[in-house]
Amino acid sequence: MKLRITVFMAASALILFMLPFTCKATRFIFGTDKPMIDGAGNASAVRPGDTIYLSASTRLYVLLRRLHGTAENPILVQNLGGQVVFSNNSSGYGVKFDTCSWIKMIGKSSGSDSGFVVSNTNAGIAIGGLSTCIEVAGFEIYNMTWTGIVAKTDPDCSLKSVRGHYTMRNISIHDNYLHGIANEGMYIGHSYWSGYTIHCNGKDTTVLPHLIKGLKVYNNRVENTGWDGVQVSSADSACYVNNNFIYLDSQAEVLYQMSGFLLGGGSSCNCFSNFVKDGKGDGIDELGQGGNVIYNNLIVNPGKTFSGSGSKHGIFVGTQAPAAGCGYTLVFNTIVSPKTNGIDFRSTAAVNSLASDNIIANPGGSFIVPATGVSLVQLNNLKAASVSDVKFINPALDNYDLQPSSPAVNTGEAISGFNLHYDKPGRWRPWPQKYDIGAFECHDSSLLAVDEKESIPGLQIRKCFMRSGVLNVSLIMETRELLSADLYSLQGLHIANLCNSINGPGLVEMEKFIGQLPETCYICIFRFDGDSIARKIYSYSYH
User: Fold this and answer.
1) Are the C-beta atoms of residues 185 and 140 closer than 8 Å to each other?
2) Which of 260, 268, 352, 377 has the fewest CB atoms within 10 Å, counting from its CB?
3) Residue pair 283/306 in contact by the 8 Å Cβ criterion
4) Strand partners, 315
5) CA–CA separation, 43 vs 64, rounded Å?
6) What residues form DSSP beta bridges with 402?
7) CATH code 2.160.20 region(s) in the chain
8) For 343-383, what is each residue's pLDDT tens digit?
9) How far apart are CA 147 and CA 472, in angstroms?
């Protein structure tokens, strides 16, 4: 095999310019006199790919009903001419989706203001009525008497929304700011995954709520909630909860409603790269069916201000039995000053569970506590009696990155079976060649001053140089996969990516135009799973 790759920075723009534009979208503007936008009524002309604009105003609410886009051409709902505010001082909602599919409601911000604002209602956004494939972003939601965002359709006597008849799919909730919420910040999926009883036609009927397949909750900021910050239940596949910030959760101190994140019954959600701070509840409650990974989370002071006598932990795994053959994987998390234990693990039915490469500092109780009969493998966790022992950069300013002298640096291990090659801020791990423990991978430039490997098994570097802004690399690969090749400054600044995911065996030659760089030393890092090689090069130009 001989692969030659030539990449120029302008290529992506050229490709975009050449793409055909086949969809002729129509724009519809709805004023304050249209609180309901109905695809079978006043919006019957709206087709997939069209845009619905809500003109800048203050409104009581908006009900989006019977609107259907497609996966290729969703219907877009946006604000026009400024901010749209929903406020009704009632027990209702600000925005509701009823019998809708493939809708993207995305607020266009102006400066620091969100495009859509919901205040002083019962629920900010309600995704129900058998709706599916909904995306919401660009909202500020505050002063709710119940929840900020709810996404579920409760079973009723029609049995249309019970499991097996209806599945909610492809829900995306991102880049929203929620604060001052009386109960859950987000209530996604039904809590009673194992079933509950409703009264129909004079008799009790046991019903199973619907599942959610495909859920993304990311880049949200949730502050000052009475109950859990984000609760996800009945989301059994393709569920990702990541890069959210939760602050001051569980302020009402209601039993069983106290956590930053609650991964509830029936859920199997990868929960990663989140920051939970100063809540009164556990940082993360795992009550789901397992088979997922909780990693790269930063959890600070969970439960420290809880006034009750009960325990509060960094990560809590309950007594539930997960799906057959499943366990819970808790790796690369940083847990600082929990009221009680760093990790409290109670599921005796879980198998193949792992707690590895976590930092736990200054717990009020113990570092890791498995209940009697629990099968939990513990490997390579850094247990520090005080926060200062870890050598974070500046905890007082919420900077929990690692100093190069930290005992967590270069002492971590690769977690086999999982593709965990990025830390909480999204930087590559390992850096440059060895893993760090915890949510942060130290990228201090001093760590580049290591002896260069001439080669590693499965890779020979024939040439690696940069001349007149062009980086040239030639490799001979065996059967291994090259995960990535990247160029960095000696200060650790990422300059360019050369390639990703190339399989051997054979000769691989690459050229990439980087642009004129100062004539000084740089470093190329070639990464395999669990191994890497760094090569210092010098940039020079023809004269």
Assistant:
1) no
2) 377
3) no
4) 284, 343
5) 10
6) 392
7) 146-200+208-401
8) 999 999 999 999 999 999 999 999 999 999 999 999 999 99
9) 55
Secondary structure of residue 189 in the 3-state scheme: coil
Element (H, E) at 13: helix 11-18
Helix ranges (H only) for 266-351 are none
Give per-residue pLDDT as tens, 125-147: 999 999 999 999 999 999 999 99
* pLDDT computed for residue 10 by the predictor: 32
Beta strands in 18-100 (DSSP E): 27-30, 36-38, 51-59, 62-65, 75-87, 93-98
Q: Which amino acid is at 61?
A: Y
Q: Running DSSP on this structure, what letter comes out for residue 521?
A: E
pLDDT at 124 over 90: yes
Of 280-289, 301-310, 326-335, 534-543, the one with minimum mean pLDDT is 534-543
CA distance linking residue 294 with residue 276, whole number of Å: 13
Range from 32-36, 279-283, 469-473 carrying the lowest mean pLDDT:
469-473
- Give the model confidence (pLDDT) of 42-79 as tens digits: 999 999 999 999 999 999 999 999 999 999 999 999 99
Output the pLDDT for position 22.
Answer: 45
Q: Quick one: three-class SS letters along 323-388?
A: CCCCCCEEECCEEECCCCCCEEECCCCCCCEEEECCEEECCCCCCEEECCCCCEEEECCEEECCHH
| Predicted confidence (pLDDT) at residue 485 exceeds the cutoff of 50 | yes
Which of 253, 302, 255 shows the shortest CA–CA distance to 277? 302
Beta bridge partners, 317, equal 286, 345
Which has more pLDDT, 430 or 87?
Answer: 87
CATH of domain 452-540: 2.60.40.1930
List C-alpha distances in Å: 348 to 14, 78, 320, 321, 338: 56, 49, 8, 8, 23
| Structure-token match 């925005």, residue found | 95
The residues near 70 (Cβ < 8 Å, ≥ 6 apart) are 48, 49, 102
Burial (CB count within 10 angstroms: exposed 0-12, middle 13-18, buried 19+), residue 2: exposed
pTM for this model (two decimals): 0.85
- Residue 382 neighbours by CB distance under 10 Å: 21
> Where does residue 88 fall: left (phi above 0), alpha (psi -120 to 50 degrees), or beta otherwise?
alpha
| Higher-confidence position of 202 and 20 | 202
Position with higher pLDDT, 522 vs 343: 343
The fold for domain 146-200+208-401 equals Pectate Lyase C-like (2.160.20)
C-alpha span between 294 and 241 (Å, rounded): 10
Please state the length of the chain: 543
> Which segments of the chain belong to CATH 2.60.40.1930?
452-540
Q: What pairs with residue 382 in β-bridges?
A: 359
> What would the two tokens of residue 387 be?
């926060």
> How is residue 445 annotated by DSSP?
G
474 burial level (CB within 10 Å; 0-12, 13-18, 19+): middle
